[in-house]
Design goal:
This protein is of the alpha+beta class. It has 8 helices and 8 strands; from the N terminus they run βαββαβββαααββααα. The chain starts with 12 loop residues before the first strand and ends with a helix.
């Protein structure tokens, strides 16, 4: 079943937007990430998406009107086009759902391959009836936290997609989404021997509010986690300059005041008129 321009599937998320005062934040944030970032392997997988697309719907249940919802695609192996399991781990997908230490790179707990949760992550792909093996993610987390400075600066971009890191860092801080520093992130790998990359989800606490819909109003900090902090502190391959250059490039288009204001006011006026 297909709705609008969303993909043709039978598994959807209906978000009631109950904690969004204006019902526009997560919609705008999801659309912005999709416009901002393209999977690095798009040449090999032209149908791959960088995250979940959304659309507004009005929801009725048993002939009772329940109001305005976001209809959202799932972030899964089909959305990202990560490689299927065929006897060995190929593509990988982990969903970060709680503050568990490993997903913020602040602790390195032991893992148990009999359990589908570790360090704040849920194991999403491969499926439970195929394999559960945390070794790859454990080794990556250990590398970020404990490798020597020379090993880290020499090898990190073979283990994580640099372009994705820059876009995610800028996106995270542009919309100021504190939960998406660790808890509301997917960590994925396209196929074996490829680097990891980030995919955001649950983008309701942003643009001045937090997860419960209350205003936070903080605009003078920089959102980080342990991984981001080490990259910035080490300034791997002069990445601070790359981040700065990309920021000013985006400020000429996607991130300029007019574009951002228009995206907000267009959705506000659309909902107000309806």
């Amino acid at each position: 079943m297909q709705f609008g321009e969303l993909r043709d599937v039978d598994d959807w998320i209906l978000d009631a937007l109950y904690n969004e005062p204006l019902r526009i934040r997560s919609y705008i944030a999801n659309k912005l990430w999709k416009e901002l970032h393209t999977p690095y392997y798009i040449g090999d997988e032209p149908k791959a998406k960088s995250g979940a697309d959304v659309m507004y719907v009005e929801m009725f249940l048993n002939e009772h009107y329940n109001g305005l919802y976001n209809l959202s695609e799932q972030v899964d192996k089909k959305q990202l086009k990560v490689k299927k399991f065929n006897g060995d781990m190929k593509g990988e997908l982990y969903k970060s759902t709680s503050w568990g230490g490993a997903n913020t790179f602040n602790s390195l707990p032991y893992f148990n391959n009999n359990i589908r949760e570790w360090g704040g992550y849920e194991f999403k792909h491969p499926d439970e009836d195929q394999i559960t093996d945390w070794q790859n993610l454990y080794q990556f987390t250990d590398f970020v936290m404990n490798s020597s400075e020379s090993d880290f600066t020499d090898s990190i971009w073979s283990k994580f997609v640099e372009d994705n890191f820059i876009d995610y860092f800028l996106f995270l801080n542009l919309i100021r989404a504190p939960d998406n520093t660790g808890k509301n992130i997917y960590l994925a790998k396209y196929k074996i021997n490829e680097p990891y990359f980030y995919v955001p989800w649950d983008l309701d606490g942003c643009f001045g509010t937090i997860w419960d819909g209350t205003n936070e109003g903080i605009s003078n900090d920089i959102l980080i986690n342990g991984f981001i902090s080490r990259i910035l502190k080490s300034n791997v391959d002069d990445i601070l300059l790359d981040i700065s250059n990309r920021w000013f490039n985006y400020r000429d288009n996607l991130f300029n005041d007019e574009a951002l204001s228009s995206s907000i006011y267009d959705q506000y006026n659309f909902l107000k008129a309806n």
